[in-house]
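tool_call: predict_structure(chain=1)
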Amino acid sequence: MRYFLGVDIGGTSTRLMLMDSSQTFHGYRKVATQSWAGLSDPLSGLQQVISDYLQQAGKAEQVARVMLGLPGILSRDRQTVLSLPFIPALDDQPVARLLSERLGLPVVMDKDVNHLMWWDLTRLAQLPDVAVGVYLGTGLGNSLWLNKDFYHGAHGAAGELGHIPLAGNPALCPCGKIGCVETLTSGNWLAGWKRQHAAETAFERLFTDFGEHPDLVEFVDRLGRTIATEMNILDPQYLVLGGGVLSMAGFPLSRLERQIRSHLRGPQPANGLTIVLSGVTDETGCRGACLAAERDFNLYEPQGSGIAMPLRRKA
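tool_result:
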């Protein structure tokens, strides 16, 4: 049986999971990212994490693809890391090729948010032509699905919605620019607000206890205006909303949707946009990466006659 390995790399945790050719998932594991990223040679550290996982699973010889999900900027061909702020040692490195050589396995990679989006897209009754995903967690993740494929842009950096400039915003963004909307519209901003205004409140209760505070109301409205801007540019069939912030108890999803729709150009995309909520869980990044690995294999690996196998989708 053929297997696909999904590796979801986040700033805090690295998650691994296998999927077999019947799209059954196996062996979810989570390790601290700093356990390998903090080494002098993080690529060797990542190789060891993957090798140990496959050795324990006993499936190394059957793995057809390893798919990495990374929260950074990748080259258009998805071979080179251009910018990964929490592991700068990997910047400008052909990570996919180097890791493939070290593991002796085909390795591909993409932005982690595209794996979340791929999981959500495969939950729909059929794949849309155009869809956008916005996943609000520590940062503002954005995935673009245009003409039935992920859009990466001319240089690989498309979908950086969190880095559009916001007028009157003097904050310095970790990307090095001033005024990025993500500095005021992200889990990081919420954490800072909590430290200043609600230090004794558990983070997950912010909207339950302070949802009517003007700062948090404006946080939601600002997010809605930002999303509506992209909707008016791209005119998608679907908008997928997800991420840890939006799944917090008491988060005003209805207000967010009203704010988005109040700024949509009519008659379209106002009348044609369908908004759905993501099914994101702790395992979704891995699951989406596994499905993306299988998709890559089916698209680019000839099967026998040289004709790629059709993409399998499972509800």
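agent: Residues 214-234 form the longest helix (21 residues). Proceeding to next step.
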